[in-house]
Design goal:
Strand content of chain B: 15-25%
Largest interface: A-B, 50 and 48 residues
CATH topology of the largest domain in chain A: TIM Barrel
Largest sheet of chain B: 9 strands, mixed
Radius of gyration of chain A: 22 Å
CATH class of the largest domain in chain A: Alpha Beta
Shape of chain B: globular
Structural class of chain A: alpha/beta
Strand content of chain A: 15-25%
Oligomer: heterodimer
Number of helices of chain A: 11
Number of strands of chain B: 33
Number of domains of chain B: 4
Chain lengths: 390, 781
């Protein structure tokens, strides 16, 4: 990838930020919402509970709030209010390819530049109750690039939480698949890596050279290794997960494991290394998933019992939580795994993920108990903007 | 059990998504079909072209229960009617595309058969909404049939272009004809194969004849249809193009006494005379050349189809669409037919009366008379001029199109008068061109005269008398404009594909003045083209201004740099292969980064090329040159707009397909748009919305001369002022291209470049009579 002097890049970012800030103003609507039950995720649920929203933020949460003058009151009656859902790993709205496949190492690849903000998939995610998305590049590169954290709705100027955040790396066979068909290096275009060992070797080499060159402009890799950016490592089978942990140990970083289909097999190791997991959606079609990983339906319960932090990702979050509960995951943990935990793992817990004073007014109103299959979405709110049927 | 419950969860999710989708579709339908009462309607004040013995007159039309109740010259009526005032407009029978794929499922539109078993009604998609774009162009009925793939395909039908998911509501006539073809499709390369195909077709007709005379124990549905053809109950529509196939088709008609309709007939050669003398009914098309017509083109002789027709021939015009969008250009095809020399009244009949008669639905469609179905279209002027807006379309008594805010009332007289003048060749050194319609700098036509001396303009004056002694050529009502101008055009040039950064290349270096496309542009009155590089690279090189008809051809070698954000410049074999990568490369280049050259470029060369690249970028940053952005989707145009703003560039978006949501508060003089045929073909429904919103300077580009004139006409139809469209055609996006001072205008001592037209350049029916470049004739009749 290209290297840039820091100053012009800073100017560019300023310019972009100026554009995004735009002329559109905040929707300054004030709401008071009453619900049969409010899961705040900061303590025991309030039943009943009320939430006061002003200027796009939550300003008060209590069992009973007197309605200030001129405020719009929404009474959910027996309905339930939970924080807007957070899907920490998604590729919604990324135009063209999610992989820059022409190079193995693309640490400067930012998905944020290629987002189609009008994409229909944002509206679909919103309809499911998701208000915040972690948009990650794909898995076909050894180092894929930087993730973005965005809202599913709202004025364009307010939709970006993190423009270029953590670094996504792959410790799996994906980056090798494209190249492994080649027999021998007979052309200058021959690509590496061609197998799993090659993937890990390429990561080691990159990390080592980044650590060696501490002078000059700090690279993205260097920032990641010094804890300024989180490293999100995609691995599925147990041996790859262990490779990722070994890399973390060798280069002193604590990754967030992504996908982690076989995390349950190495749960103690994950717990002792304090590595959290962004779980991919469990498949029910066959006993094995991507890369032949063995599927286990009580991942959530097992990981929780072992003391591993995890979140569900990849769409249908409410359904994923309900499914996990059915096979042994505690209800509270499952709810955290689609709100508070993913917000924390994306580093945006100060903005979203709980219903607390000062948080963005991102709320999901449900028609009843969140864990019941028959419960539906009543409406969604992002930063005080109400999305529902008129 | 648990697996099953999970299955239901997934199903519920899918249903929810489907529900969202369905609601969107339903809303879209609701918007495009205006609500209507059951009250009878009266249309008042229009000029009615009845296509009956009653002729054309000004009067009223009373419509009740989906039928025409009364048409009269008297301007009075009794009873409670909803009045629609169409003063100054022209009413015709609803337009009829004799060969269309509207309402067909896209996957079925190209499917055909060889044994006559198919019925096109089995390929219609009840949920398609492509009818609304066609209705917006005044079209009320279409003929659809299986695609031609040799011998008998199957049954064709006439469909109404109207809303509804119930097919019964919009099938006007099923099994209206039997479709067949000779010499079309695979395995017809040589005459022996074509002969065999004919024998097969003939054999099937013979078998059907035997079948009809014997008493078969079991009914054969395919033969039953062939028997109907043999009895003359329905016509046989045979697509054929070559001389031998056309002869064979006529032989079938002689031998079996069937009602034959020929279709296509693109290379008749010697048979043309016979066809003309026999006045065989034909479906002809597509007229016009280029991609916008959405139909595959066959080679045609210059005198096609005049050589096939007499004034009393009955023929139908078909769009020959391979996608339903082609039908929306039926009027434009008709206009091209007029420009090719066919009489306008015959062409109008070929899209109204004749298809109704020849396809057996004349009792309901094709003419306006009491008792006929209320199928009509109201135009704010000449129906065959594609720049004239449609005011109202009614199919089967239902209003299928009525704009909420119709454009300003048309001028009293339609401008489609044809004016001719005759100029001597060579022209004298000093002369005066006089016309009642000379284009002024505001884009309006006004009377005046051009005084020309030794290839230069002396003056543009209202009083040519001052120049006594010079020969004066009076063009009458024939408009005179500066030469037309394509603001971007990328012919298929050879390109270096190795690297994504090629900002040192210049498009003008590949210009060939003898190329076919150059001639086609000149024939349409174009004198200048901005040549842009092909789209294989992200930074694909420099655009330059070319003069088409006189040397030196290169006027300005470097107008600006082209950036390509579409899929065309993504390549898995080199960086970048994704939009984010393209944006990255563009922004880093603007920040001063040059190419990493491959090993095979020598060091001295690298330095030189990098220097050129730096200069090119520097010229952009200093706003001496223009950034051309090739973009399709919303995210691509957003990225272009973002970079253009961050680096304060002077920018042109080329053929963007989605900019409806673009948030752009550009400073004046920093953004323009090039409109091109791809936009009509792929995103026609976006047009009206964003043309109304578009305050930016525009130009026309990325198509043939004919397509660009059509685009200009269509943008006027969609709400752009004719002034802006004419300026876009002659000067391009003003001030954004850094063109020479006074480009596209007549200035004293400037080049004497002008075009004398038979009518307005925005009307595709008119054509250039003479093109004068530097005082010399370069195109003449």
């Amino acid at each position: 990838m290209m290297r840039l002097p820091g100053f012009p890049r800073f100017l560019l970012i300023l310019g972009l930020a100026g554009f995004l800030a735009g002329p559109r103003s905040l929707l300054a609507e004030e709401w008071l919402i009453r619900a049969g039950k409010v899961y705040t995720l900061t303590g025991a649920p309030l039943a009943p509970g009320m939430v006061h929203v002003k200027n796009g933020k939550i300003v008060e949460v209590a069992a009973e709030i007197a309605a200030p003058e001129g405020v719009k009151v929404i009474d959910l009656s027996q309905g339930v209010l939970i924080p807007g859902l957070v899907d920490a790993r998604s590729q919604v709205g990324i135009e063209s390819s999610v992989n820059e496949i022409t190079q193995e190492l693309t640490p400067n690849y930012k998905v944020h530049t290629a987002i189609n903000w009008q994409s229909r998939s944002f509206r679909e995610a919103l309809a499911e109750g998701v208000t915040t998305l972690g948009l990650m590049p794909g898995t076909e590169n050894v180092i894929s690039g930087q993730l973005a954290v965005v809202k599913t709705a709202g004025p364009l100027a307010q939709r970006t939480l993190v423009e270029a955040g953590g670094l996504v790396i792959t410790v799996a066979s994906d980056p090798a698949n494209r190249n492994s068909s080649r027999q021998r290096p007979d052309s200058i275009y021959v690509r590496q890596p061609t197998n799993r060992m090659g993937v890990v070797w390429m990561l080691r080499q990159t990390f080592a050279s980044a650590q060696a060159s501490t002078n000059g402009t700090p690279s993205v890799i260097h920032e990641a290794l010094t804890g300024k950016r989180t490293i999100y490592g995609v691995s599925r089978i147990d041996s790859d997960i262990l490779s990722l942990l070994r890399l973390g140990k060798d280069y002193q970083f604590t990754p967030v494991l992504v996908e982690g289909n076989e995390a349950y097999k190495v749960k103690e190791t994950l717990a002792s290394a304090k590595v959290p997991v962004l779980l991919t959606k469990v498949t029910t079609q066959a006993g094995t998933a991507t890369e032949g990983s063995e599927v286990f339906w009580n991942q959530g319960g097992e990981l929780h019992d072992a003391g591993v932090t995890f979140a569900f990702t990849g769409g249908h979050l409410l359904d994923q939580a309900r499914f996990a509960i059915r096979f042994g995951c505690p209800k509270g943990v499952a709810l955290e795994a689609i709100t508070k935990t993913p917000a924390r793992l994306l580093g945006v817990e100060s903005r979203v993920g709980t219903i607390a004073v000062g948080q963005d007014a991102d709320l999901l109103a449900l028609t009843g108990d969140p864990f019941e299959l028959t419960t539906g979405v009543a409406w969604v709110m992002t930063q005080g903007q109400w999305h529902g049927k008129k | 059990m648990t697996r099953r419950s999970w299955f239901w969860v997934v199903c519920c999710g899918a249903l929810t998504l489907y529900g969202i989708h369905f609601n969107h579709t339903a809303n879209a339908l609701h918007e495009s079909a205006p609500p209507q009462g059951t009250k009878p309607i009266v249309l008042v004040g229009g000029t009615i072209i009845t296509q009956t013995d009653e002729g054309t007159f000004e009067g009223i039309i009373l419509i009740q229960n989906g039928k025409i109740k009364e048409i009269s010259r008297a301007k009075k009526w009794t009873g409670d009617y909803e009045v629609i005032d169409i003063t100054g407009c022209v009413v015709t029978p609803g337009l009829f595309d004799a060969r269309s794929v509207v309402r067909l499922h896209p996957a079925s539109a190209r499917e055909g058969g060889r044994d006559g078993t198919l019925d096109i009604l089995d390929a219609v998609d009840p949920f398609s909404d492509d009818w609304s774009d066609a209705a917006a162009q005044g079209i009320t009925a279409v003929g659809v049939q299986p695609a031609a793939s040799g011998t008998f395909g199957g049954l064709g039908a006439v469909l109404a272009v109207s809303p509804g998911h119930d097919t019964a509501e919009w099938i006007i006539k099923k099994a209206a004809w039997l479709q067949a073809s000779l010499g079309v499709g695979q395995g017809t390369a040589n005459s022996l194969q074509r002969q065999a195909q004919f024998q097969q077709l003939r054999g099937q007709l013979d078998a059907a004849k035997t079948y009809s005379t014997s008493k078969p124990s079991q009914k054969d549905p395919v033969k039953e249809q062939l028997v109907r053809v043999l009895k003359g109950e329905i016509p046989l529509r045979v697509e054929a193009h070559f001389e031998d196939d056309l002869r064979r088709a006529m032989k079938l008609q002689e031998d079996f006494k069937i009602r034959l309709i020929l279709e296509g007939v693109s290379e008749p050669r010697l048979t043309a005379e016979t066809l003309r003398d026999r006045r065989l009914p034909m479906v002809l098309g597509p007229f016009g050349t280029g991609s916008i017509w959405g139909a595959s083109q066959r080679k045609k002789e210059r005198d096609w189809p005049k050589s096939l027709l007499t004034d009393s021939s009955k023929w139908m015009l078909g769009s020959f669409g391979e996608r339903s969008q082609a039908t929306t250009l039926l009027r434009a095809q008709a206009a091209v037919a007029v420009a090719q020399g066919l009489p306008a009244d015959q062409v109008l009949k070929a899209i109204t009366l004749y298809p109704a008669e020849l396809l057996g639905v004349a009792d309901r469609l094709g003419s306006l008379a009491p008792g006929r179905s209320a199928d009509l279209a109201v135009f704010a002027g000449d129906p065959l001029d594609p720049s004239v807006p449609v005011r109202l379309t009614m199919a089967q008594g239902k209003i299928t199109y009525q704009p909420a805010n119709p454009l300003a009332a048309p001028k009293a007289k339609s401008s489609s008068t044809t004016a001719t003048v005759s100029l001597p060749d060579p022209l004298p050194a000093k002369f005066v061109l006089k016309s009642n319609r000379i284009l002024n700098e505001q884009g309006q036509f006004q009377p005046g005269a051009l005084v020309i001396e030794n290839g230069k303009i002396v003056s543009l004056t209202a009083r040519p008398a001052e120049t006594a002694g010079y020969p004066i050529y009076d063009c009458g009502d024939g408009p005179i404009t500066p030469g037309l101008f394509a603001a971007a055009f990328a012919p298929n040039l050879a390109t270096e594909e190795a690297d994504a950064h090629a900002s040192h290349l210049r498009a003008v270096d590949e210009f060939d003045p003898e190329a076919e496309w150059v001639r086609a542009f000149r024939k349409q009155g174009f004198t200048h083209v901005v040549l842009t590089p092909p789209h294989k690279q992200v930074l694909s090189g420099q655009a330059g201004l070319i003069r088409l008809s006189a040397a030196p051809h290169v006027v300005q070698a470097a107008l600006g740099q082209q950036f390509v954000f579409t899929g065309a410049s993504r390549d898995a074999n080199r960086f970048p292969s994704s939009l984010a990568g393209q944006i990255d490369l563009a922004s880093e280049s603007l920040l001063g980064r040059t190419m990493d050259w491959q090993l095979y470029v020598p060091e001295s060369m690298r330095t030189k090329l990098n220097e050129q690249q730096k200069q090119s970028i520097q010229a952009l940053l200093e706003r001496k040159q223009t950034a051309f952005w090739v973009v399709d989707s919303q995210a691509e145009s957003d990225a272009a707009l973002r970079l253009s703003r961050a680096f304060r560039l002077r920018s042109l978006l080329i053929e963007p397909l989605e900019i409806r949501h673009a948030e752009w508060d550009a400073e004046p003089g920093s953004l323009g748009v090039i409109l091109g045929p791809k936009q009509w073909l792929q995103a026609a429904h976006e047009w009206r919305a964003w043309l109304a919103r578009c305050q930016w300077p525009i130009g026309y580009g990325m198509g043939t001369g004919q397509e660009l004139r059509l685009m200009a006409g269509l943008s006027v139809q969609m709400g752009l002022t004719p002034e802006k469209a004419l300026l876009g055609l002659t000067r391009g996006p003003d001030g954004l291209l850094g063109l020479p001072e006074g480009f596209g205008q007549w200035r004293p001592d400037g080049d004497a470049d002008c075009v004398i037209w038979t009518g307005s350049p925005l009307d595709l029916q008119s054509k250039p009579q003479y093109v004068i470049v530097q005082g010399r004739l370069v195109e003449k009749p």
